[in-house]
Amino acid sequence: MRTFRPILWLLAALALAGPGPARAGDGKHERPPLDALLERHAERLGLDAATLDKIRAIGATSRPEHELLKNEVHKLRLEMRELLGGDAPERDAVMALADRIGAAETLLDKHRLGTLLEIRVLLTPAQRQELVQIFDERRRARHAAKRKAEDSLAP
């Protein structure tokens, strides 16, 4: 069962990440920074003040690069919308831009995971297990809300 825990942790991280990076202006809810999520659940996780301070510091250090990467993805997506909004977009240009968007999203995801891994080492095994539960609850709540919204749109 020991080898299964890292897989659960990765799945929890991906569940937190959702289907892809949140993008400003596309109707998706912006995910809270991981440090804010941990602070909100500090009591449940049993985080002490010293650990919370370290988590806040990691978040503060990570945030500027995260914002740059997130803004780059947003800029490229806007560029794609403009390109596709034209009368006859050139296929090669669209595909090249899609590659650039994919590369930018990958950098953002890697940055997010790097921050997660930095914070993860500060947590005890029990805290990591509880965090997986929190991620799972958030994922289930998002899926339930999505289903409810889809059901309300159905005829």
In words, what does this structure look like?
With 155 residues, this protein is an all-alpha fold. It has a domain at 32-123: Up-down Bundle (Four Helix Bundle (Hemerythrin (Met), subunit A)), CATH 1.20.120. Helix content is 78%, strand content 0%. The chain has 6 helices and no strands. It has helices spanning 4-17, 34-40, 42-45, 49-85, 91-120, 125-153. Helix 1 crosses helix 6, helix 2 crosses helix 4 and helix 4 runs antiparallel to helix 5. The longest helix is centred in the middle third of the chain and has 37 residues, at 49-85.
Give a short synopsis of this structure.
The protein has 155 residues and is mainly alpha-helical. The chain has helices at 4-17, 34-40, 42-45, 49-85, 91-120, 125-153.
Which geometry do the CA atoms define? flat
Biggest sheet record: none
Number of strands: 0
Give the class-level CATH name of the domain at 32-123: Mainly Alpha
The residue fraction in helices comes out at: over 70%
| Helix and strand pattern | HHHHHH
What structural class do the secondary elements suggest?
mainly alpha
Poorly predicted parts = 1-27
Question: What is the CATH architecture annotation of the domain at 32-123?
Answer: Up-down Bundle
Give the CATH topology of the domain at 32-123.
Answer: Four Helix Bundle (Hemerythrin (Met), subunit A)
